[in-house]
């Protein structure tokens, strides 16, 4: 607009008749700016300290690897309609500079802006201010308001995923997230009670002696033996924090995938009346949380997992075995989250894995290279692609060989893509429990 006034005044030198028109237009423009400034910056009344209000509503903690909902509340206290531009200063870890929202609010109107953030690192995140730029219907000036500076939020392991699995388990809908229905093979040896037969009960559990004692002249009342799952079995998640767990996948490291899966599995184990514990290790053993199922155990597990960080050193399995032998005396289910890329790398640790499997039920969980799998699924169109696919087939074959070799020594395994880790781990736990192995 200012460029237009400059051109108008320049043209007035050639056409003097335009000079009064240019001055009038410029005066009207200055008057409009003064009116716009008065409308924007005039002080509010006593009740409304500011003519515009905004607030960011963010949870006290965010869930790592999940889309966390946030809202920005806007309230127009002006006596006229305004257009606003909202710039939210989100933590630098997100590396986003495009968080700009636009809205139009009538007099005394309120609006809510909803958006989501997906953190990929655990730790503390610092939010800046919510910057609101307000324009009057004239649109000549903007007034900036700032709200909510200095908000610090902790990012914890994926508790949203944990709650999702907990809800689905409570409503018997775990199959919606890939958890299979496991048919129980036989019964637990823990007797619970004798109760009347109801439709759907296993006829093999009929207690004929109890039925004879409680026979009714009007008809036979069948009695069955009711059994309950064996409870209070120790379940430990052993989490490798060595350099092999530093590999990234969709923004998260393999360590974060293992931590999220451990949180979900521990919660499922507690729901199944088992005891859940955590052990972290790398070049030395980190933290050991003994298996328990008291009410505060999940909070302890979450706090332990929140503080874990990847180390860039080689994992010491000898130290792991020594600590497990010293501190975990009762036979337990050990879920070892690690990663092996080659058979030779696994064979170096095999003696310690075999010793762990001798005293406990060991389940080794390691990861499939999804980018390599995508390469192998593509058709080969040139010599270079054929060469890459040949090398890729060798690495994929070694992963399968690791599974076979561990199975020879009675060690359970899961080879999974990172995104399927949680569902596959829960499936395996429920399968082992249904088979009565724990």
Shape call: elongated
What's the rounded overall pLDDT mean?
85
- Give the oligomer, counting copies of the same chain as homo and different chains as hetero: single chain
Measured distance between first and last alpha carbons: 78 Å
Tally of separate helices: 11
* Biggest sheet statistics: 6 strands, mixed
Transmembrane segments: 24-41
Protein name: Cell division protein FtsB
Domain DUF58: 193-364
GO biological process, one term: cell division
Descriptive notes:
With 438 residues, the protein is of the alpha/beta class. The protein folds into three domains: 52-156, Sandwich (Immunoglobulin-like), CATH 2.60.40; 159-183 and 231-434, Rossmann fold, CATH 3.40.50; 191-227, no CATH class. It contains eleven helices and 20 strands. Strand 16 and strand 17 (285-292) form a beta hairpin. Helix 1 (2-14) runs antiparallel to helix 2 (18-41) and helix 3 (159-170) runs parallel beside helix 5 (254-271). It is elongated, with a radius of gyration of 33 Å. The relative contact order is 0.09.
Features:
alpha/beta; 36% helix; 4-stranded antiparallel beta sheet; 438 residues; 6-stranded mixed beta sheet; Immunoglobulin-like; Rossmann fold
Summarize the structure.
With 438 residues, the chain is of the alpha/beta class. The chain has three domains: 52-156, Immunoglobulin-like (Sandwich); 159-183 and 231-434, Rossmann fold (3-Layer(aba) Sandwich), CATH 3.40.50.410; 191-227, no CATH class. The protein has helices at residues 2-14, 18-41, 159-170, 208-213, 254-271, 297-306, 317-327, 343-359, 370-377, 383-408, 421-434; strands at 52-57, 61-63, 68-76, 82-88, 100-105, 110-117, 123-127, 130-135, 143-147, 151-156, 191-196, 223-227, 234-240, 248-249, 252-253, 275-281, 285-292, 333-337, 361-367, 412-416.
